[in-house]
């Protein structure tokens, strides 16, 4: 799933490619992706791209006062095309193509979604907060306004909720997903199940530094990369997420996993839980 660093890098890459360009056509191959009807999709035809920005994990292409907003969900991605086919794409359940944006010189963007679970979303709005998901976003963890006092207030208000879930909730903190919540908790040497309001002042400072450091470093590594390079860059720099069974790069212990219905988390017992494996009830049931 693209998270804050990848979407930030996508916005930067596309800003350079799209600035001042005209959108001539938009073809929707997966009609379930379009979530709005006013303004109509046709209102974007002939508009000039003014900027490309990010709101949490939402990508925002601003064109002549309108906003074409994408949420790439779990399996979405954006691919640049140096040449767009002359014929519009046909709707097909077998094709990953969801949306094609055609520019004034017949270059463009293909917005794709792998797999059968279609969650990718596209919005055409007059203002970003018109997208419900953007209106509900919490503070951006890399913004100047995200201070340690803001984090303290968030954790206190979340009570005994587990840190992993608090960090992932977009209405609490914007942009952190499954992968980077694993990574920053590993950097902070904290259990994903630690209660949010149980941190002392030293632990709060450690977690805040991990949030800013892990995300900031990922953004710096991704800056300047083309969209086609971002996925491999992310995977090559993950310490624990997706690394089940491998050695922790910090202590050498084996990275372990806790599985849920539709996701999983990874962690290092030595670094994060005092050497004790976390209970994985789903796997325990399978082994009985």
Automatic annotation (TrEMBL):
SUPFAM superfamilies from the UniProt entry: Glucocorticoid receptor-like (DNA-binding domain) (SSF57716), N-terminal domain of MutM-like DNA repair proteins (SSF81624), S13-like H2TH domain (SSF46946)
* UniProt-listed GO biological process terms: base-excision repair
Keywords of the record, alphabetical order, are:
DNA damage, DNA repair, DNA-binding, Glycosidase, Hydrolase, Lyase, Metal-binding, Multifunctional enzyme, Zinc, Zinc-finger
- Required cofactor names: Zn(2+)
Using the record's annotation, list all stretches that form the FPG-type domain.
Answer: 239-273
**Its domain of life?**
Bacteria
Q: Which reaction does it catalyse?
A: Hydrolysis of DNA containing ring-opened 7-methylguanine residues, releasing 2,6-diamino-4-hydroxy-5-(N-methyl)formamidopyrimidine
Q: Does the keyword DNA-binding apply?
A: yes
Q: Which SMART domains does this UniProt record tie to the protein?
A: Fapy_DNA_glyco, H2TH
By its UniProt entry, which InterPro entries does this protein fall under?
FPG_cat (IPR012319), FPG_N (IPR035937), H2TH_FPG (IPR015886), Ribosomal_uS13-like_H2TH (IPR010979), Znf_DNA_glyclase/AP_lyase (IPR000214), Znf_FPG/IleRS (IPR010663)
Q: Tell me the PROSITE patterns matching this sequence.
A: FPG_CAT (PS51068), ZF_FPG_2 (PS51066)
A Pfam family (short name) is: H2TH
Source species of the chain: Nocardioides szechwanensis
Q: Which GO terms describe its molecular function?
A: 8-oxo-7,8-dihydroguanine DNA N-glycosylase activity; damaged DNA binding; DNA-(apurinic or apyrimidinic site) endonuclease activity; lyase activity; zinc ion binding
Q: What is this protein called?
A: Formamidopyrimidine-DNA glycosylase
Q: Which family is it part of? A: Belongs to the FPG family.
Q: Where is the Formamidopyrimidine-DNA glycosylase catalytic domain?
A: 2-93
């Amino acid at each position: 799933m693209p998270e804050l660093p990848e979407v930030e890098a996508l916005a930067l890459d596309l800003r350079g490619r799209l600035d001042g360009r005209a959108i001539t056509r938009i073809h929707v191959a997966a009609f379930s992706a379009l979530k709005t009807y006013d303004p109509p999709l046709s209102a974007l035809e002939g508009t000039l791209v003014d900027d490309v920005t990010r709101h949490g994990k939402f990508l925002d292409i601003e064109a002549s006062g309108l906003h074409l907003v994408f949420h790439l969900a779990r399996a979405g991605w954006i691919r640049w095309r140096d040449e767009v086919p002359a014929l519009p794409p046909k709707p097909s359940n077998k094709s990953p193509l969801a949306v094609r944006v055609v520019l004034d010189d017949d270059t463009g963007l293909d917005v794709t979604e792998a797999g059968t679970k279609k969650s990718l979303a596209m919005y055409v709005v007059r203002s970003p907060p018109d997208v419900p998901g953007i209106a509900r976003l919490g503070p951006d963890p890399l913004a100047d306004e995200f201070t340690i006092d803001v984090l303290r207030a968030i954790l206190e208000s979340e009570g005994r909720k587990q840190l992993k879930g608090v960090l992932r909730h977009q209405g609490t903190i914007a942009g952190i997903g499954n992968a980077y919540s694993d990574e920053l908790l590993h950097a902070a040497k904290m259990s994903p199940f630690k209660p949010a309001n149980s941190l002392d002042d030293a632990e709060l400072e450690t977690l805040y530094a991990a949030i800013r450091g892990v995300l900031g470093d990922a953004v710096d590594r991704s800056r300047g990369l083309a969209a086609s390079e971002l996925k491999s860059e992310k995977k090559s720099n993950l310490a624990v997420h997706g690394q089940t069974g491998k050695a922790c790069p910090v202590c050498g212990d084996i990275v372990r996993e806790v599985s849920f219905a539709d996701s999983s988390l990874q962690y290092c017992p030595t670094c994060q839980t005092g050497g004790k494996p976390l209970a994985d009830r789903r796997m325990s049931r399978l082994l009985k």
